[in-house]
Every structure is written in structure tokens, then in C-alpha cells.
Amino acid sequence: MAELESLETAAEHERILREIESTDTACIGPTLRSVYDGEEHGRFMEKLEARIRNHDREIEKMCNFHYQGFVDSITELLKVRGEAQKLKNQVTDTNRKLQNEGKELLLAMEELRQCRLQQRNISATVDKLTLCLPVLEMYGKLREQMKSKRHYPALKTLEHLEQTFLPQVSHYRFCQAMVDNIPRLRREIQELSMSDLKDFLESIRKHSDRIGETAMKQAQQQRNLDNIVSQQPRISGGKKSRKEFSASSELEVKNTSPMSEQDSGILDVEDEDEEEEVPGAQDLVDFSPVYRCLHIYSVLGARETFESYYRKQRRKQARLVLQPPSNMHETLDGYRKYFHQIVGFFVVEDHILHTTQGLVTRAYIDELWEMALSKTIAALRTHSSYCSDPSLVLDLKNLIVLFADTLQGYGFPVNQLFEMLLEIQDQYSETLLKKWAGVFRNILDSDNYSPIPVADEEVYKKIVGQFPFQDAELEKQPFPKKFPFSEFVPKVYSQIKEFIYACLKFSEDLHLSSTEVDDMIRKSTNLLLTRTLSNCLQNVIKRKNAGLTELVQIIINTTHLEKSCRFLEEFITNITNVLPETVHTTKLYGTTTFKVSRAWVLLSWCAGQVSARMAYQLTVNADSDLKPAVPSVPASTDRCPSVLQGKVAQTACMSACKHLATSLLQLLLEAEVRQLTLGALHQFNLDVEECEQFARSGPVPGFQGDTLQLAFIDLRQV
């Protein structure tokens, strides 16, 4: 067992020795530890010493084997050392010489190094400045554009600066300062552009009338050109006959015609500037502030805000423009300025509509126009109702037509304006009737109610040319001779034609058909005849100082005027080109008017004849015991002159008797008459008998039996 353990120990020590020989010294610790952990470290030391001695012997053998080579090498080394020393000395000497010679080169190289360093720095600086200078230049350009109020280019420059240049130099501090300043610059540009827009809105508000005036002048020039190219035969023929008529009317009293050639309104005034070149709205207004502000707000993403603000402000301005001045109705200039402002407003809006995309829309403008149209029509209805001068009403009509034509040229519907003009036409007719009533009164009051004397052929032709009168017997008579009618006949006839011309003037440019114009003229002329002229004649007949001769002359005059009605029909037909046989054509009532006037003359004469020979006495006293009054003696009654005979005389006589019977009956049945004395009643009976006697006497031939007495039968029964 001891030997076995010894063999194992020896093997272990051998293994440890091999491990020590082959292992790195840094890892030998664990191996040695295993030696000391055992109890045979003494033996191991012996083994180790023996191994060291073996290695020493091997080293010695090897050295002895290589010793001669070693000696030879040492000898060679000694020889080389001398040569090396010489070489060293040469190198040292060469180095010294090289050092002495290279000092200037070193200095030059140092200078070159410094230059190269500076060159690199300069190149880097240039590169950086190349990046920075455009940024600074763009920023300077931005400030200059803002200073010169070029806001939209400034905004484009700012956008270019922010998106293109600043990202390239974002690591510089000045760049960060610019980036921080960009929002403030945007707000400043936005505020400045809005300020320019406000100035623009204020400017066009002040100059809307000038813009509208220019637009209406253009429309007037276009209309004049259209009239030259295609003249309407109806209108031109009417004007020609008017001139011929005016040239032959020398018997008219000065200033008796309410419508003169000066009443052509704005059309004649505007014709003076017909040859001038009228600028357009874009020539009068600089719209660039609107475009710039629109572009700026679009770029800033606030287009809707801008559109809302613009429309709101323009709507406010529209309400101001549509507010008419309180004294607008006093002069035509008031209406003209009002129309100029409205036209100017919508011309600007129409220009904005066609030069911008979406700032204003057609629906928005249509809404504004509907509001403007309703307010304008309401204002015109109110203010035109104050106009009592037909010349002013006619000028207003011409101005409204030009106003409508101007806006219609810009695409605005104006049918309601022309419908309103038809309403104004009724008012115009009323003002004409009032004015012609004064003309007729002046003619009738100034007439001498005696036939017109004619001394020579020239005067005769003038009167015949003025009034359609033909009498073969009168033409054969030598001069001097007399017309059967007085001077008021040709004057009244002339004024009726003047009235027709005045009505025709209003119908021009209203886009009415010939039938509508004819109907309008005939209706107005009927009112002139049946109301105005008839009332004037009745007032003359009712005058207390109208004598028999005067009444007879009135009958003769109305007879000739009645005959002239067919010439008035022809006259209206000639100027309207509408035949009287046309369906729905209104007929003139002149014949009836003059017949009624003659009936009034006869009624006045007959009533005067009867009442002049009647006297009665009514005593109204409930407590009186007066004696009856003495009956009056009936007087004889004259017959009507032969000139009054006929159906008209019969009608007038019957009307007079009925009127007299009704008046006596009303007098008898008055509420204030509470008591009648016998004398008064007897006297009243005598008066009734006088009336019955007058009826039986046949004052007008042609009555059958007691027809005329029947007018007093109710009075006799009472």
C-alpha cells in the first residue's frame, strides 16, 4: 500500500511539474496550492530541485555547443560598433548642417501652416456668410416691402424666408431671433392690409356717386348710340309732327303750355358730353387693396374671416346708400345723387364678383339687390308722391329709366322698376291734369266769347292749320270775315294735343308695346276731356255774370270741339300706329263731354228764365198772427232762342224743370219749416201754377202732350 501511494504521489508531483512548466506564471497559484494542501510538499521540493538541475545541465550543454558562434558574433559586433560610431558622427554632422539649413524652411512652413489655417477659416466663413447673407437680404427686403406698404409681396417674402432660407441657418442665434419674430410680422402684415382695406371701403363709400355717375354716362352713351343705329319710326315721326305743330301755333299765349322743350330731363343734359371718353369703374377705383388683402388672408388661412368682414361692411354701406335724404323730392339733383350712389355700389360689387373668386357670390349680390330694389322702390314711391310739377316727374322718369338701364347692363333684374314707373305714370297724369286745368282756366277766362275776326289770308291759314276747320261758304266770303267760334277753340284744341305729347313723352323708353302706349294716352286724354275740361267749362257756365250771348258762343264752341274729336282720334293713331279698330282700343269720350257741356248751358239758361220770374214768400214763425201776404202777379215767360232748339234743348229744359220742382219741394219739406201761414201757402201755390203754366206754354218744341208738366206733379200733390 505504501508503495502504491508513493507511486501515486510521484505521478502527481510529475503532473504538477509539467503543469508548472507549461502554465503561465499568472495561473500557477492554484497548482502550488494543491501541492501545499497535501503532506508531501517536501518530496515535491526535492523533485523540483532535481528538475531544475536537469534543466541547468541542458542549458550548459546548449551554451557549450553555440559558444564559438557567440564569440564570432561578439567580434563582429565590435567591428560594427566602430563603423556605427563613424556613421553616428556623420549623421550628427549632417543633422547639424540640416538643422542650420532648415531653420528658414521651418519658419516658412510655419507661416504656410498659419496661412492654410487662415485660408480654411476664411473659406468656412465665406461658406457660412453665403448661407446667411441671403437670409439677411431677404429679411431686409421684407422690412423694405412692409415700409412701402407692399403687404402681399412682403407676405410672400416672409413665407419664402421661413420655408427656404431659415432652415439652412437654423443653428445661428440671429436665425432663432428671426424665427421668433415671424408670428409678429405676420400679424403686422395682416393688420396693415386690413387697414388698407378699411381705407378702400371708406374711399369707395365716399366716391360711389362718382362711380355711379360714370356708369350711368356710359349707359347713356350706349343708348344714344343704339338710337342712332336703329331709330324707332313711331317716336321719330311723333317728334317731327310736334316740331311742325309748334311752328304753326302762333296764336297761343306765351307760357300757357305747361310742357316746354326744356323738359327733356337728364337726357338732353347728358348729350353735351356725348363725345367724351368716359372711364370705367376700374379706371376710377384702385381695387388692389381688396386683392392684396384677399391674397394675404388666403395665405394666412383666414380667407373666411376676410370674406365675412368684407360682406358685413359692404352690407352696412348698402344700408347707408339706400337711405334717401329727406329733401330728395325737392330737386332732380337729389334723385340723381341717390341713384349715382346705388349704381356706384353695385358696379363695385359686380367688378369684385368678376375679378375675385368667391369673395362675393352671385347669391350674395342677388340678396343685396333684392333689398336695394325694395328700399329704392319704397323711397321713390314716398318721395315722388310729393312731386306736383309734371316736368320734374318726367325728368324723374327719365332718370329712373337710365338708372334701370344702367343696372340692367350689369345683369341686375329691373322689371319692378318699370312696374313702378307705371304707378308713377298715374301720378304724372294727375299732375298734368292739374296743370292743364290751370291752362284751361286761363284760356277760358281770357276769352272774349266772340267769333274770331280774320283780316287776311295769312291769319286765316294759320288758324285753319292750328284747328281742323273746313267751311266752303266761309272760304268764299271776302276778307275781313269771322270764324264762328271764339279764340278758346283753337287754343283748347292745341293744348289737348300738347297734353297728348306730354303723355307720349312719359311712355318713351318704358319698353311698352304700341297698344299699351295708345291705351295709356287715350285714358289720360279721356280724363282730360271728361273731368278737367268739363269742369272748367261748367265753372264758366255757372258764373253769375254769364250772359245769353256768352252762353250761346259756348254752345257754338263746344259744337266745333265735338266735331274735332275725330281729328284727335286720328292724331293719336298717327303717333302710336294703333288703328282705332284694334281690339281693346279705348275710345275718346270727347263727344259726350261737349254734349254734356251744352246741356249745362241750356240747363243754366232755362233755370235762369224760370227762376227770374218767380217770387214767393214763406213765413216761418210758430207764434205769429201775421196776415197773409199779397199774392204776386204772374209774369210772362219768353221762349228759348231758336239756336237752342233740338234734342239737347229738350233735355236741358226737362232737367231745368225737374231741378226747379225738386228745389221747391225740398224748401217746403225742410226741417226748419214748422208752420206755414195761409198767405205763404197761397203764394207758394201761385208759384207752382206759374211753373205749370211755363211747362204748358211749350218753351221748347218737340214735347208730346203734358210731358213737361209731369215734372211738377209730385210738387202739386204735396
From TrEMBL:
First and last residue of the signal peptide: none
Keyword Coiled coil: yes
InterPro entries cross-referenced by the UniProt entry: EXOC6/Sec15, EXOC6/Sec15_C, EXOC6/Sec15_C_dom1, EXOC6_Sec15_N
Domain Exocyst complex component EXOC6/Sec15 N-terminal: 47-216
Biased composition regions of type Polar residues, renumbered to the chain: 219-234, 246-263
Keywords: Coiled coil
Disordered: annotated span: 219-265
GO cellular component: exocyst; membrane
Annotated transmembrane regions: none
A Pfam match: Sec15_C
Gene3D superfamilies the UniProt entry points to: Exocyst complex subunit Sec15 C-terminal domain, N-terminal subdomain
Record flagged with keyword Coiled coil: yes
A biological process term (GO) from this entry: Golgi to plasma membrane transport
Domain called Exocyst complex subunit EXOC6/Sec15 C-terminal: residue spans: 416-598, 644-718
Coiled-coil region list: 45-115
PANTHER family referenced in this protein's UniProt entry, alphabetically: EXOCYST COMPLEX COMPONENT 6B, SEC15
Protein's name according to its UniProt entry: EXC6B protein
Annotated organism of origin: Copsychus sechellarum
